[in-house]
Amino acid sequence: MTSAPHRDDAIRATGLSKRFKTGRSYIEVLKSVDFDARHGDLTMVMGPSGSGKSTLVACLSGLLRPDEGQVQALDQDLWGLRTGKIDRFRLDHCGFIFQGFNLFSALTAVEQVTTVLKHTGLSKREARDRAVVSLEEVGLGHRLNQRPSELSGGEKQRVAIARALAKAPRLLFADEPTSALDGENGQIVIKLLQRAAKEHGAAVICVTHDPRLEAYADRIIHIEDGAILDDRRVTSGAHPAPHSHLIEA
Amino acid sequence: MSLALATLIYEWRRYLAAVIALAFSGLLILAQVGMFTGIVQAATATIDRSRAEIMVLPAKSESLINSGSNGLPRRLAPEMYLHPEVVQVASLDGSGGRWMNTPEAGEKQVTQWIQLDIVDPIPGAVTLPVDYPEEVRIALLEPFAAVIDRSAQARLGVTLNDKATINGKTVTIRAFLDGYPSINQPSVVVSRDTLRLLGMADVGEKVGPLMVQIKDPARAIQVRNDLNAVADGRYRAWTRQELAQANEGALMKEQIIGIMLGFSVFLGFLIGVGITSQTLRGAIMANIKEFASLRALGVSMGALRLIVLELSFWVGIVGLAATAVFTFLVSLLAKSAGLPMGFPIGWVIGVAILLLVISLASGLMSLGVLKKSQPADLLR
Fold it and tell me: In sequence order, what are the residues at sequence separation of 6 or more whose Cβ sits closer than 8 angstroms to the Cβ of residue B369?
């Protein structure tokens, strides 16, 4: 159910299938799914629980190898890469935001972000500078040195977003990013995701079953029982920022 | 600050079990080493605190422990004076004997094997320890006078001015020493003349090790070399420090003590690795989602392994500090109970290395848990 190839395509998947073994039988979670997402788009994947949407994201992002099918991410055959190269691909290009915030309780907000940045080869100073910019961007400039126990749920998710965005990823995956948050914080978070797409030109793929978020999407894909039901564009198409703008956060 | 160190500090309670396990592993070994070294030091305290910078032993003796004794020809002592820097030479005499107290009404009879040490109660004598109080020296001038460490009163069943017998001959306790405790055989000090009166002095053609005082203690090594240059296989001269170390080393090589220490090292290793690795596994499991999110963001498995190994290294360092505190407290306790301990630097370094090896081995053993950091699991 993909559209024709487009110059702004960030990721294209064809024929993705994934089966899980439960007891003696297999459950087919993805049934030959085709998928694409563009830079500058906030693409929302919606569906009931168990519909396969999280598995789809895992296959698209290099976390879970599909049984069949191909993923072309940023013009690379993702599953054709060796494991180490897939790690490197994620380090260079992918951001993740999860339902749980998964922050180290021992680290301050700024350390959460620099811990990841250090592995990208930045110096300590560069990592810190970039972490501060990233945290300011999510509105936490005043909470740099707080630990997770001193932050509210919404603030924690914003730290997680800053951690994902600080690397200036071209692909941003979010899995139910608002389901642990109240309405107001949920709105802040989805606006940040939207900004990542519009201002930084990232391809944002957001899995959710929260209907309130639909209003922010450029494109909504419904998935059920491992197959895409419908795919509709709600805005007039992607308007990615220039590529020079992509990387520098 | 690194993630590993920050985690250890912030979640210190989680790692407490590992730190304490390491500390007890270290203590298990160091306390025994301390005790055995203390025994050696107590046995040779009279020599270690004497004015003899140089000791002369039979050529093949490797220490005073189970290999010293009377092996030098008597004519050797005057020969030492041929060296112009030698001031005083005296042979180390002493013996062992059966001690019996003279119990008064209500007291128990005590029979005990003792070590009999001698000093020459002459001011400035080479055999007289420098920390002997003047009244002890004067007390020892009296024939059949004996002195004991204050802490040995109960074991020997005597107190001041009590009489007791050594091999059937009566002596009188005339003074107490401080700082000469022994948990091994109690030691009784008499003068060289009293030893002769007791019939236990060396009278044959061989004498005990020679204690040599020299003009300038700083030149001990040079004089030792000079003496050895003309020894011609008849004796070997040692500096006092050299001999003290050899004595400590010799006791550790005693078969039963070697087995005990070896077993302790083995046990300490097992307990340390067992508890530390389990603690580390638990602590990593508690943070597994956070590790998984780092994996998702592209941090490699190798980098996560390094974090775990760094964590185990820091646990080892903290365990080492805890060992130092525990060992210090135990040695204070032992000292207050009249049991001095000694900690040879070689053993201290060895135990420090052992603890780091334990903690790093535990880190290696807990690496397997990281396999559970599957980022795909976070997407559910």
Answer: B281, B284, B285, B288
| Closest-CA residue of chain A to B1 | A111
Task: Sort out which chain B residues have CB atoms less than 8 A from A106's CB and list them.
Answer: 3, 6-7, 9-11
HEC sequence for A118-144: HCCCCCHHHHHHHHHHHHHHCCCCCCC
Task: Give the residue among B293, B268, B292, B280 at the shortest CA–CA distance from B355.
Answer: B268
Å between B303 CA and nearest CA of chain A: 8
Q: What is the DSSP letter of A64?
A: S
Contact assignment for A63 to B6 by CB distance below 8 Å = no
Q: How far is CA A246 from CA A7, A194, A198, in A?
A: 16, 14, 10
Q: Specify the higher pLDDT residue, A23 or B30.
A: B30
Is A47 an interface residue toward B (CB < 8 Å)? no
Contact state of A115 with B3 under an 8 Å Cβ cutoff = yes
Entry pTM = 0.79
Q: Is the pLDDT of residue B113 over 70?
A: yes
Phi-psi region of A50 (alpha: psi -120 to 50; beta: other; left: phi over 0): left
Partners of residue B190 on adjacent β-strands: B118
C-alpha–C-alpha distance, residues B210 and A182, integer Å: 89
Using one digit for the tens of pLDDT, what is the confidence trace for A94-127?
Answer: 999 998 899 999 999 999 999 999 999 899 999 9
In a domain, A130, yes or no: no
- Spell out which chain B residues touch chain A, with contact meaning CB-CB distance below 8 angstroms: 1, 3, 6-7, 9-11, 287, 289-290, 292-301, 303, 375-376, 378-380
* A63: contact with B, CB 8 A cutoff: yes
Please check whether residue A228 lies inside any domain of the structure: yes
* Residues of the domain holding A51: 9-105+148-247
Is the ipTM of this structure higher than 0.90? no
The CA-atom distances, in angstroms, between B100 and each of B103, B156, B164 are 9, 8, 6
- Interface probe with A: pick from B11, B14, B297, most Cβ of A within 10 Å: B297
The token pair at A106 is 């021992």
Distance CA(A156)–CA(A234), nearest Å, equals 30
The CA–CA distances, whole Å, from B174 to B102, B144, B244 equal 15, 9, 30
- The CA-based angle A132-A136-A137, given to 5 degrees, is 120
Interface residue A61 vs chain B (CB under 8 A) = yes
Is residue A99 in some structural domain?
Answer: yes
- State how many domains chain A has: 1
Residue B69 pLDDT grade (very low, low, confident, very high; cuts 50, 70, 90): low
- Burial (Cβ within 10 Å: 0-12, 13-18, ≥19) of residue A62: buried
CA B269 to chain centre: 22
Q: How many angstroms separate the CA atoms of B90 and B87, rounded?
A: 10
- Backbone φ and ψ of B329, nearest 5°: -65, -45
Closest Cα of chain A to B271: distance in Å? 28
Residue A125 lies in a domain: no
- Tell me which residue in B6, B7, B293 faces A102 most closely, judged by beta carbons: B293
Substitution target in A81, A87, A89 with the highest count of B β-carbons within 10 Å is A87
CATH code, domain with A163? 3.40.50.300
Phi, then psi, of B125 in degrees rounded to 5: -65, 145
d(CA B62, CA B246): 7
Taking the CA atoms of residue B347, residue B352, residue B355 and residue B359 in that order, the dihedral angle to the nearest 10 degrees is: -160
